[in-house]
Amino acid sequence: MVGKCQWCPIMNLSKFRTHNPHMNVMFVGLVFLFYHYYNFSLEASNVANKFYSANSSFVAFVFTVAPYTFSSLMAPFGGLLFAKLQKHSSNYIFPYIFLADALLSVISNFIGHHIYLPNMLYFAMLCRIIQGALLGGMLPQYVLYIYAKSYNLNERVNYGNLFFILFYLAIMAAIIGVNFFSKDVLYHFNEYFSMAYVLLALLIFSYRSLWHNFHIDNVCINHSWSLGKTWRQNRGSILRFTFFITFMASLNAYFVTVMPYFLVKFLNYSVESVYLMQLFIISCGVVGFILGGIFHARIGRKFHLSLGLLLKLLLFLMFHFYASHDFEFVMFIGASCLFCCGLMASKILMILNSVFVAPSRLYGIALTYNLSWGLMFGFSGFIVMRMMFTFNNLYIPSLLIMFFSYISLISLWFTPNKDFFRYLEFK
Fold first, then answer.
1. Rounded-to-integer distance, Cα 311 and Cα 327, Å
2. Do the Cβ atoms of 297 and 421 come closer than 8 Å?
3. What is the pTM of this model?
4. Within 10 A of 235 (CB to CB), how many other CB atoms are there?
5. Is residue 230 very low, low, confident or very high in pLDDT (cuts 50, 70, 90)?
6. Cβ atoms within 10 Å of 192's Cβ, excluding its own
7. In terms of Cα–Cα distance, which of 269, 261, 254 is closest to 57?
8. Which fold has domain 20-425?
9. For residue 230, which of 76, 401, 366, 26 has the smallest C-alpha distance?
10. CB count, 10 Å around CB of 265?
């Protein structure tokens, strides 16, 4: 008989503070990382339009989407590079990556606020491209770290969801800052926040107990399989979950990056109303993750397939009502979509950790995460926005997301139901 806390793990933050304070430090670091990454992406649009819109609307468009697009293209390379480096170290190497990311954030923010030469924007973009490779190496290690350092199933599920919830909250904070505060207030806040980011990175780096002695289920990281062996032994799981997560990544990319551009430029919605809608939709995604964490043991293959079909219907209705300017209905459908996405993704980190045996987990998660979320979260947004920019076609986003939804449903159909519950075997 499974106990109540295992089947219904309601988040208990006081327990986390008492038993796992080091994990809390790591999640604070994630907030800094996600906020800076998305905040610069929002500001890049304003900077690009200031310097380039008069001469080249295409160049301004490129700089608007570049922080996501080019950095996401580097994520798979960074994931493989740092996985290979990690294999030769007995300690976690993410503190080094984290510190490098913090320093690059300070540099790029300094350029954006203090230097007004157009050519320097290229250097800021280069910083973000390098950060894409760093994130490709660091975030899969966070996934491994959450699983390895949690004391029980309750913490693993809750911390896995907290990973995505903090991502959503950081995005909401960046949206509020850029759109609802003055430039002077935002400038001073980001300046202090950047320095705090570096100080936190140094703190994490100085606490050796946070990152020494890297083991995966009692297997030393040095004994992990090579990339080739991991692929040969796990290619089915890698492909299935890559396609599955790709749909969720493209859906999130649409609501986070594409939707404001789409609604304002093509359908003439007001900027303020669009961002208020976006905040509401993202908050519903947070609720989806929370409920998914509570009822995780009941979410299996059939549930995912049912949600996938429901999402297809909701997306069809949403794009239909965009054109009729039914603002309230669009907001309701969009919120329902991200709520369902939160339910579907609520235990994906635990699933990834459990479907790969310990020696294959380093490369297995690095490949699956970076080929799906790491790559497609930014790149799918670029594809959609560029095609809309070129063809002036309102149905481009729906076609691309529908394409990924079909791939996701096919991959789910061939995924064994037991893969969704393997993590329950590891108490």
1. 19
2. yes
3. 0.86
4. 12
5. very high
6. 9
7. 261
8. Growth Hormone; Chain: A; (1.20.1250)
9. 366
10. 13
